[in-house]
């Protein structure tokens, strides 16, 4: 049993709510965009804390900036950087879409705008991968 869309114990609880939301996110562009925006936001925030921690730890251990950058230029870190770039693209482009909606632009064409921006992001991400791939392959 649910009360205005909020699951109760008899309605399957939180697990049922998650399953229903996951199904909706696959069918509805707005829900999918919402979920992707939240996931990328959380991951980028996590990355920020990890980055600050790694830089601080290296500094405490007496590692020079040049040594630290040499570590971060290894192929594994370059690939991680590309995934971070991908997250920034998704989050940023969806943020642009949200700003447009706040201004009252394109509200009725939500799906078209979202997928158009994601296609643009995909092209930019592939271009970035093509640029960084020689460094990743060459560094192995």
Total number of beta strands: 2
The residue-averaged pLDDT reads 85
Helix content estimate: over 70%
CATH superfamily: Fumarate reductase/succinate dehydrogenase, transmembrane subunit
The CATH topology, please? Answer: 3 helical TM bundles of succinate and fumarate reductases
**Second-tier CATH architecture:** Up-down Bundle
Structural class: mainly alpha
CATH class: Mainly Alpha
Q: What is the number of independent domains?
A: 1
- Global outline: globular
Distance between the termini: 56 Å
CA-atom Rg in angstroms: 20 Å
Task: Compile the SSE list and pairings.
Blueprint: E1 2-3, E2 6-7, H1 13-27, H2 29-60, H3 65-72, H4 75-102, H5 110-138
Describe the overall structure.
The termini are far apart. The mean pLDDT is 85. This protein is mostly helical and 140 residues long. A two-stranded antiparallel sheet has the order 1-2. A hairpin with a 2-residue loop joins strand 1 and strand 2. It is built from 5 helices and 2 strands; from the N terminus they run ββααααα. Helix 1 crosses helix 2 and helix 4 packs antiparallel against helix 5. The chain is globular, with a radius of gyration of 20 Å.
